[in-house]
């Protein structure tokens, strides 16, 4: 089963990104033939600074590898290293009614939030369809906000197949309903745009500042506290087993400790959880050539399939003579 997912290169990853997306993609390596790529062309719709984009691509590659992406178990590459996707993007554009894109929530939301509207942003779902269809993807694991984009890819593929024959595989999105939205330090959705993150790879000092900044009510040491309604506890659930959670509940219910103590427990847990990732990350950061080699090998693997698929598609539409 071919599983494909793309990740936009945003430099710092937080634990919401990890539990909401990265962990699922890493797990997919064990479930099927995983194709995972860094959506560098997509990032051009928002990142306009050359150094920032370059650094982000490298950072996100390192962070994904450190989080468990194993290049021997999957195909892992940078989108813009396999340019065939742009040819398919253009061909598919001619099977994409304007109305289909005009209805895209993600585009409408971004414009409503003040992002400047340009053709790249508008046609973003067509490029995403090309990513998916170029590799005959069957399953596309995504967050809820991306379901509509996978539906758009299906619609485009259906229209293409109707015109030229059954060349494209119709993809299905896979959304993990179990994955609750990870709250940020202020209780709202954790997001890099809200300045409320706990980062996966922050320095000790920054991590401590982030965890100690979690918003709680003002109950003191001698009060009994409500764990069921506490941001610290909700975050602890991501890192603790049942027994550990029971112990923590008792601590909330027994006067004598304050929120600062619970925060330190969470800090310990976060540090412990990501320590092995951190070790691998440091090795990779010290060896950029190793990272580049992994990405180059991944691109070569992906390109082979992409070139073969484009030969069929060029022939199907009449670009051969
Ligand atoms: P951000 O909101 O920080 O900009 P992105 O939009 O770049 O994050 O999200 C990248 C991936 O991480 C998406 O698949 C998204 O569903 C997931 N994700 C982001 N924030 C959270 C969160 N707070 N809880 C669960 N998943 C999240
Ligand atoms: N649009 C996706 C996001 O922002 C990233 C992405 C690009 C993607 N191409 C894709 C995801 C293809 C799945 C399949 O999260």
Shape: elongated
The low-confidence runs, each spanning 5 or more residues with pLDDT under 50, are none
Total strand segments: 5
Strand order of the largest sheet: 1-2-3
Report the helical percentage: 55-70%
Number of helices: 13
How many whole angstroms does the radius of gyration measure? Answer: 22 Å
CATH superfamily placement of the largest domain: HUPs
Could you characterize what this model shows?
By secondary structure, the chain is mainly alpha-helical. The protein folds into 2 domains: 2-180 and 288-317, 3-Layer(aba) Sandwich (Rossmann fold); 192-281, Tyrosyl-Transfer RNA Synthetase. The protein contains 13 helices and 5 strands. The chain has helices spanning 15-28, 40-43, 50-66, 84-93, 98-102, 105-112, 119-134, 147-164, 204-212, 231-236, 242-253, 259-286, 288-317, and strands at 2-7, 33-38, 75-78, 139-141, 172-174. The strands form 2 sheets. Strands 1-2-3 form a 3-stranded parallel beta sheet. Strands 4-5 form a two-stranded parallel sheet. The radius of gyration is 22 Å and the shape is elongated. Bound molecules: adenosine-5'-diphosphate (ADP) and tryptophan (TRP). Residues 4-6, 8, 39, 42, 128, 131-132, 140, 142, 146 line the site of tryptophan (TRP).
Task: List its traits.
two-stranded parallel ribbon; Tyrosyl-Transfer RNA Synthetase; mainly alpha; 2 domains; binds adenosine-5'-diphosphate; 321 residues; 5 strands; binds tryptophan; single chain; three-stranded parallel beta sheet; Rossmann fold
